[in-house]
Design goal:
- The chain has 69 residues and is mainly alpha-helical.
- Helix content is 78%, strand content 0%.
- The chain has one helix and no strands.
- The mean pLDDT is 75.
């Protein structure tokens, strides 16, 4: 009788556990996607910032033509 109860409980719990696995997998996929997008945006911002630094001088005195004598 005890084995029958365990079988019934496991049979009823199996769909619940598979639902948890689906939700967990979806959450993992969402987390990975968000991290990839965040990294891509961070890299793009870094490249854009470097390009802007090349075009617009920041006034740090590296350019010898602009220094006062």
């Amino acid at each position: 009788m005890r084995k029958l109860k365990m079988f019934i409980v496991m049979t009823l719990a199996a769909p619940l556990l598979s639902g948890c696995l689906v939700i967990g997998a979806a959450a993992l996929a969402t987390d990975v996607t968000a991290k990839v997008v965040g990294t891509t945006v961070g890299v793009a911002a870094g490249v854009g910032g470097a390009a802007i630094d090349l075009v617009i001088p920041d006034g740090d005195g590296d350019d010898e033509d602009c220094q006062e004598r």
